[in-house]
Design a protein that fits this description.
The chain is of the alpha/beta class. The protein is built from 17 helices and 23 strands. The chain has a seven-stranded parallel beta sheet, sandwiched between helices.
């Protein structure tokens, strides 16, 4: 009996398939019932030509054009950056011009939920910590906030001694006004995050940020705040001692608070992917999209970072669709202005390419899978609270990296981030709980201390998309009720406030 190596055809119209396991030169795979012999080694996650592809012809994956062949590609050849041109910028311009030419009523913006709430059988409540401002948290953290670079080390030492999150800042005394306001907003949203019980503000004493200004905004939400200044306190050693004492006192207060029933519909979920490889688009990202579909059908809230914009097909109105495209245009042009290179010249990253992603279009399409069937109801600015039920976007043109994006989600009050990573990423967050999902079985095994859920069974047909999505959502509910994530066990409490200017309508 002939043995065929596993591969996957995503859409019938695709002229490439994806190797699900390594295929050696001379070995065969079956694609839609047709035998294809590999002409060279095809690593798992990489593309194999399903047909002969002429020079200048389109490479088709997901049923759409993802690049252009730079040479004749023979059936069975490896298809990657050595023989594919990334025409992302050209595709982007053409698509955006097409959508902008459409009349406002030419598209269907109706919101359709994939599921009915009653058929999901989800609980009405989770057990959380109620706040004086009407919100609730799923964690009850005491957080140390460093207000200037000069106090970062002392904050880190307090954090390590007390086993609590600390946030550090890349900010000194000479910040530009727009950057300073973003930094200030980062301090305040850390202290007022739903998962935050109370904070210790640590400063040098001569920084631009006014500690009392930040403390006042946090205290308005009923949270306790302790201010410590290194200069006023008599030096670093004394400030650390006083910081440890303050944290321990706040921890005792936090421990006295008990969990109470809180509405599941009030839980805010963020979706993001970083450290991508070929498995994300085929398993982990769709599974996250499925879990978010379930949450929205239950009346919940979901948020995504729109650092690279989007298209009207994901929007709930013509105006929001145009706004998404404006943000994307700004990001792409800003990338060129700042670095002298277009987005496709710096992305996909070397790690993405090693994992089989060849072009920016291919990567973007895979990333969109985390969205499920949601439509975006509005665009928030970085740090704005989520107004209500449904799916929302955040305008953060510099949010397109893991640290900035996760912090941006946290700054809008997300309780949990569903973070997909094919290659593996340990990043957590000081306030927001992070669940790591991978579709790569090797990553799930080798990086077991980082990964909370493996979507590999869905990739290999052992679970359906719906079954895997339900498993992930049930894990999310357990985490919401107090189960620790891997990032929490590792003590990864990252927080990097985006400091660049988001697109606000003016170039």
């Amino acid at each position: 009996m002939k043995i065929y190596k596993k591969s996957m055809l995503i859409e019938e119209s695709d002229n490439v398939a994806v190797a699900v396991e390594p295929i050696q030169a001379g070995e065969c795979t079956l694609v839609a019932g047709e035998e294809i012999t590999a002409n060279e080694y095809i690593k798992e996650g990489h593309k194999i030509a399903r047909t002969d592809i002429e020079k200048g012809a389109e490479i088709i994956k997901y049923g759409v054009h993802i690049g252009v062949a730079t040479q004749f590609i023979k059936k069975g050849d490896w298809v990657h950056e050595h023989n594919v041109y990334d025409d992302f910028e050209e595709i982007n311009r053409e698509q955006r011009a097409y959508y902008r030419s459409m009349a406002p009523d030419a598209m269907d913006y109706t919101i359709h939920h994939k599921y009915k709430k009653e058929e999901l059988g989800l609980p009405e409540t989770i057990m959380g910590y109620k706040r004086a401002d009407g919100s609730f948290g799923i964690r009850n953290q005491v957080v140390v906030i460093s207000l200037v670079q000069c106090s970062n080390n002392a904050a880190q030492r307090i954090s390590a001694a007390c086993n609590v999150p600390a946030t550090f800042v890349d900010a000194a005394c000479g910040e530009f006004p727009d950057r300073f306001e973003r930094t200030r907003r980062g301090f305040i949203t850390t202290g007022t995050h739903p998962n935050t019980f109370g904070v210790v503000l640590l400063s040098l004493g001569c920084q631009q940020t006014d500690p009392e200004d930040v403390a006042e905004e946090i205290r308005k939400t009923g949270r306790p705040v302790v201010n410590i200044s290194i200069q006023a306190d008599g030096g670093v050693t004394k400030a650390i001692q006083d910081g440890i004492a303050a944290v321990e006192d706040l921890k005792r207060q936090a421990e006295a608070q008990k969990r109470e029933p809180c509405p599941l519909s009030g839980l805010i979920i963020g979706g993001y992917n970083g450290g991508s490889d070929w498995t994300g688009a085929l398993s982990a990202n769709p599974v996250v999209g499925e879990a978010i579909d379930m949450h929205l059908s239950a009346g919940g809230r979901a948020v995504e970072v729109c650092g690279r914009g989007g298209y009207p097909t994901t929007a709930a109105s013509y105006e929001i669709g145009m706004r998404l495209m404006d943000i994307g245009d700004f990001f792409n042009e800003d990338c060129t202005r700042r670095g002298g290179k277009g987005l496709s010249q710096v992305n996909p990253t070397p790690g993405n390419k090693a994992g089989g992603l060849t072009t920016m279009t291919e990567k973007t399409l895979g990333s969109f899978k985390t969205q499920g069937h949601r439509r975006i109801l509005g665009i928030l600015d970085c740090g704005d609270p989520v107004p209500g039920a449904g799916a929302w976007g955040i305008n953060q043109a510099q949010g397109a990296n893991d640290a900035y994006a996760s912090t941006t989600l946290a700054m809008s009050g997300c309780h949990i981030c569903l973070f997909t990573t094919g290659r593996g990423n340990p990043i957590g967050n000081a306030c927001m709980t992070t669940i790591k999902i991978t579709g790569n079985p090797q990553t799930a095994t080798a990086l077991e201390d980082m990964i909370d859920y493996s979507a590999a069974p869905m990739l290999y047909g052992e679970l359906s998309l719906q079954e895997s999505g339900r498993e992930l959502y049930e894990l999310l509910l357990r985490v919401a009720n107090g189960e620790e994530t891997k990032a929490e066990k590792l003590g990864d409490y990252s927080w990097t406030t985006p400091h660049g200017t988001s697109y606000n309508g003016d170039y």
